[in-house]
Amino acid sequence: VAAILCERQPDSPQGYRLRRHALWQSITSTPQAESDGRTPLAAVSADMVADYQSRLASADMALWQQVEKSVLLAPYWLDGHCLSAQTALRLGYKQVADTIRDEVIRFLERLPQLTGLLFNDRTPFLSEQTKQWLAASPDGKVAPVAQIGEESQAA
């Protein structure tokens, strides 16, 4: 259902909210991690991420669909949601971008330990850029996730 909504109404946040709910609703705990936060999970290919980022300046629907497909395949690639929201903004869909950010914040409020975890190559689940994106709410207030990220780094 989410895929149909996103395809037919890309300007409507409902499909993107539903997609993230379906992606994360069954995740009730964090992945196993070493004492340094490293998990056995593989990071999204650095080449793929670089390709997405290089295409962001001239974002189009094809890029957005590829990023959205990638986040579905890698539920802990939180930077991908930031990239998706940036793409939505470039396409003029601010409400969708805000919804994507809000859903990531909800997920992290449910499992705040994710902010300190790393993929098996030591890439963080949540980069500094993504932490800053999450902290910048539309009303200018700092979102709680920024504080969560700082607490996990201090621990």
TrEMBL record:
Signal peptide annotation: none
InterPro entries assigned: T6SS-assoc_VCA0119
Residues spanning the membrane: none
PANTHER family linked to this entry: TYPE VI SECRETION SYSTEM DUF2094 AND IMPA-RELATED DOMAIN PROTEIN (PTHR37024), TYPE VI SECRETION SYSTEM PROTEIN TSSA (PTHR37024:SF3)
Protein name (Swiss-Prot/TrEMBL): ImpA protein
